[in-house]
Every structure is written in C-alpha cells, then in structure tokens.
Design a protein that fits this description.
about 375 residues, ten-stranded mixed sheet, globular
C-alpha cells in the first residue's frame, strides 16, 4: 500500500482530485494492474446507518456493525473488489486476495481518525463447504466502494475507486467529487419511500424449519455429554416467520440497535437479496494495537420487573453452581484455543454481570 501524505495535495478541490487520480492511472499503466484509489475524509458528523439506508441496494454487498454503548458504528456498501472461497484454505485465500489488493492500493486523505483508510469486510460460515443453494458462500470478502464510520464523536468517510490503465478519469472524478460534497454535509432528508415501507410488518405465520427434531436433538446431546463427547453444548431451533408485507432489512436492523444498545448489532448483505442480521453481546475477538480482546459469556438469568426482583435474579445467577460451571467451561475452552495457536490469554479472576435489555449473563473478560 502506498500512502500519499496530505501535504502533497494541500488543496481539496477537483483539480487536486484529478491530479491524484491521474497519478493512480499512471501507476496502473506502469504496473499493468488496476489500482485502488482510497480517499479518506474526516467530517463533522455522519450517521452510518442513515447513509447505508440512502444507498442500500438488495443486490449489492453491504456490511454494518454498531455497538451503541461504545459509540462506534461502521458501514461499508457496494464492492469495488470482492471474492468468495470455499474449502479448508478459505481463510488463507481471503488473506491472499486482500494482500494483492493492498499491494495495488494508493491512499490519501485524513488517515488519523478511527476506521479511515481501506478496510475489508468478511463473512464466514461455520463450515468450509455449504450445500448448493445456501444463502451465503463459505467465505466472502469485499472492499467497499463507500465506507462511513462513527467512533466516540469522530466521523469519517472513505471512497475506494478502481482505476484501470485505460480509465476515464473525467467520469471517475465527477463521481468521487459528487460523493465528497455529499459526505461533507450529508442530507438526511428522507427519500420518497412508499408508505408501506415504514410500517412495521405483522407476523402472519410462524413455523419450525425442522419440526419435531428439537426433542431428539436434546436427547442426543444428553447422551453425548454422558459419553464425555462434550462438556457443554448449545442447541438452537430454526424458526421461519412470514409477514403481511415485505421486510425491510435496515428497518429491522434499526429496531434491533435501538432496543439492544449493549449488543453488537450487525447486518451482512450477500448481494443476492438476502441479509444476515442480528444483535449479540458476544464478539469473537478484536485486535487493536497488538492487544487481543474477547470474553466468555455463559450463564443466564431473566431481568426483573422491579429493581428488587432484578437484583435477586442477579445474585442467584452469581451463586448458581450450574451457571458458574457452564461459564467456566466456556472460559476454559477459549483459553485452550488461544493457547493452541500460541497466544497466552489472561482471564479475569471472577465473572461479572452483563445486564442486557431482556436478559443478564455472566461475563469474563479475556485479553492477550
């Protein structure tokens, strides 16, 4: 990745943009390979979900993640470069794809703010192969054309542009300059949306995807636990809901983030009109400045209707032998898995309470 200091392009106008992009095209010609021009801009204010809503297309890739309690949100939409992979080496293939793109990326702009510069977004299924017709491939990676972020009162916008050796610079400059002006002072005036699209859909039917199999799954799990195949297992049921009107994915996402401010709210659009949306208190891991953070979250209790009832549920959870054992299984499993890849994790000495909107959990922070 080549970084162009902002001092080399002190003027922020169309002329400077043209000079930069013509330089990128010249590099593409010299290397015989397209270049990605990544332009970052610090802005006074921008709301990532509102921006994503304004450019959302069901057939385009998108990624969104927010944790309101941390005052952080990040959105990326439309792919300037994308790939999908399968098989046991899918992670290595995704890394190689990103490395090649970064070797041909030229970066300029405000790069000191969080989440500025080029970022790749990824989605991986649990298994490295999936049946034909599955909603998502085993591995997806993409570099978005547009990216916007909010982090503790700081805001940024990024445009990533593919520049081929024979690129039409006039056309590219016009597109990026228009986006620059738009993101500098974003207009949140609602677009003309049909009245139905802002009405909350009603569920007209609810059914299990595999009716009758859950009791058998419980029996099998108990059998395997007794046989010491597992220490702990979590079972889930697939539920299909049908509504009286089309679901708007970003409306669902907005309601989730408003209700579950202590969770990571996310949406991944695979480009085929399907979205994977959720709100979870758990993160697999985060790595920042050489520090790895994760957490064990296991053991649950309801929230109380009153302060006293809520406190009783919390105390009972902290004293529950069953929940503490379940929590220890998860904590120890994470530490073992980190150690297996040469990472020595450190866990808090005792679990803490993690109160959420509808439930409270036991949580142990782990770092390395």
């Amino acid at each position: 990745m080549q970084i162009i200091p902002s001092s080399m392009l002190p003027e922020r106008d169309e002329v400077a943009l043209r000079v930069f992009m013509e330089g990128c095209r010249e590099t593409a010609r010299e290397k015989g390979h397209f270049q990605i021009a990544s332009i970052s801009l610090a802005v006074k204010h921008i709301a990532p979900l509102a921006v994503l809503e304004s450019i959302y297309q069901p057939k385009e890739l998108h990624f969104y993640v927010e944790r309101a309690a941390d005052e952080q949100a990040l959105a990326g939409a439309e792919a300037v470069a994308a790939a999908s992979f399968s098989g046991p080496d899918r992670f290595e293939q995704a890394q190689a794809f990103a490395d090649e793109i970064m070797d041909n990326t030229i970066v300029v702009g405000d790069l000191n703010e969080p989440f500025t510069g080029p970022h790749f977004f990824t989605a991986f299924t649990f298994n490295d192969t999936v049946p034909e017709g599955s909603a998502f491939p085993p591995a997806t990676i993409f570099l978005p054309r547009w990216q916007v972020s909010r982090s503790k009162g700081k805001y940024g916008a990024v445009a990533n542009v593919r520049i081929d050796p024979q690129a039409d610079i006039d056309q590219l400059v016009a597109r990026v300059w228009g986006a620059y002006q738009k993101f500098s002072v974003f207009d949140y005036t609602p677009e003309s949306r049909s009245g139905d699209s802002v009405v909350v859909p009603s569920v007209v039917s609810r059914s299990e995807l595999a009716p009758g199999l859950y009791p058998q799954a419980v029996s099998n799990a108990l059998r395997d636990i007794k046989a010491e195949v597992y220490e702990k297992i979590v079972l889930a049921r697939g539920i299909q809901l049908k509504a009286d009107r089309p679901l708007q994915p970003l409306d669902v996402l907005n309601r989730l983030r408003e209700r579950f401010t202590g969770c990571f709210t996310f949406s991944f659009g695979g480009g085929q009109g399907r979205s994977f949306i959720g709100a979870s208190p758990e993160r697999l891991l985060s790595i920042w400045n050489g520090r790895l953070l994760t957490e064990a979250i296991a053991g649950s209790a309801p929230r109380g209707a009153t302060a006293g009832e809520d406190a009783k549920f919390a105390r009972d959870l902290l004293d529950s032998e069953k929940d503490l054992h379940e929590h220890a299984c998860v904590r120890d499993s994470i530490l073992r898995r980190l150690k297996s890849v040469g990472v020595l994790g450190r866990a808090e000495s005792a679990p803490q309470l993690l109160p959420l909107a509808n439930v409270q959990h036991l949580k142990t922070a782990i770092e390395a």
